[in-house]
Amino acid sequence: MALDHAILVSLLEKPGSGYELARRFERSIGYFWTATHQQIYRVLKRMESDGWVDVRDVPQQGRPDKKEYSVAGPGRDALSAWLHEPIEPESVRHDLAVKIRGAAFDDPAALIGEVERHRQAHTDRLAHYLAGEARDFGEPSAGPLDAERELQHAVLRGGIAYERMMLAWLDDVLATLARFEAAR
């Protein structure tokens, strides 16, 4: 996926400045597609020159005017074309999995600390996703969501499921490594 498409989606959800986009990436889209502030500003500048986004100056009190970006017709067309293109399923490239296999040729128990570190990172990310879900989507009894919100929630639910799967796998790896440690 190109950063262009992630930015277009974010701007269709809500127009905003480059700074506001960067904050949204940190809070939601960034769960699945990361970008630095510099990357976002560079792409916005190119998208503006390509006619994909419109820009308007928004006056601010005591500060320079900010630029607010919104999606223009050609940007909407580009996103639509991309949405209709097939994409290949992603391949998993997982350094930790290779380390775990390689540990069979060294000291498997020596990997316990590294696996625990990864487990903590996934625990933290799951907690972050769950907090975001509670904040942004509330209780299911609140009623049905519109299509945009429901699809946003579907992506977040995928992230939650992924983190839970990773935690289950890491628990399995830790149990396996503990058996090697006990056998020493």
From TrEMBL:
<dbReference type="InterPro" id="IPR005149">
    <property type="entry name" value="Tscrpt_reg_PadR_N"/>
</dbReference>
<dbReference type="InterPro" id="IPR036390">
    <property type="entry name" value="WH_DNA-bd_sf"/>
</dbReference>
<feature type="domain" description="Transcription regulator PadR C-terminal">
    <location>
        <begin position="92"/>
        <end position="177"/>
    </location>
</feature>
<protein>
    <submittedName>
        <fullName>PadR family transcriptional regulator</fullName>
    </submittedName>
</protein>
<dbReference type="InterPro" id="IPR036388">
    <property type="entry name" value="WH-like_DNA-bd_sf"/>
</dbReference>
<feature type="domain" description="Transcription regulator PadR N-terminal">
    <location>
        <begin position="7"/>
        <end position="80"/>
    </location>
</feature>
<dbReference type="Pfam" id="PF03551">
    <property type="entry name" value="PadR"/>
</dbReference>
<dbReference type="InterPro" id="IPR018309">
    <property type="entry name" value="Tscrpt_reg_PadR_C"/>
</dbReference>
<dbReference type="Pfam" id="PF10400">
    <property type="entry name" value="Vir_act_alpha_C"/>
</dbReference>
